[in-house]
Amino acid sequence: MSLTMCTLGIHGAPMRYSEVSRNIPGVSQKMLTQTLRSLERDGMVRRTVTPVSPVRVDYELTDLGRSLYALIAQVRDWAHENADAVDHARATYDKL
Amino acid sequence: MSLTMCTLGIHGAPMRYSEVSRNIPGVSQKMLTQTLRSLERDGMVRRTVTPVSPVRVDYELTDLGRSLYALIAQVRDWAHENADAVDHARATYDKL
């Protein structure tokens, strides 16, 4: 869920399914489809169908989605900034 | 994990195991013990043993723990503030 939101959040513009999929290595089509549908249902993602041939479907964060993404991004950044401190704490604990 | 951090974060001072447990209805002793141990290992929680009789054991957030708790608290508050918007989006989606 958060990887999908981060993908859409980082891109900051509508993305096609294939673009989202490429940005989440190893995600199955079934899982990504379920995740996007769930995020759409929760009001986090807007799905726009453009009636051209072939039909074009785009996904983007809604305002509500962007407000949650802002927090997810802070947690992601916290994890990057503090990974060494956590590793150090684990190494110290494991020596006890 | 986040419930335990929120319990310690909200209290803002060392807590005994029984106090933490009382604040997380339904948590098993095994789960809480594992969670506290894991948080201690990750450097989020400090476990202090006071050699009195009976021995006193207290748990509190470390600075690292408090910095993560600050983000968790924001996500918790976001969820409270936006629960109605998510419910509304779900109701609208389910009518499609």
From TrEMBL, chains A, B:
One of its GO terms (molecular function) is DNA binding. InterPro entries: HTH_HxlR, WH-like_DNA-bd_sf, WH_DNA-bd_sf. Coiled coil: none annotated. Keywords: DNA-binding, Transcription, Transcription regulation. Residues 1-87 form the HTH hxlR-type domain. Pfam families: HxlR. It comes from the Bacteria. The keyword Transcription applies. This is HTH hxlR-type domain-containing protein. It comes from Streptomyces antimycoticus.
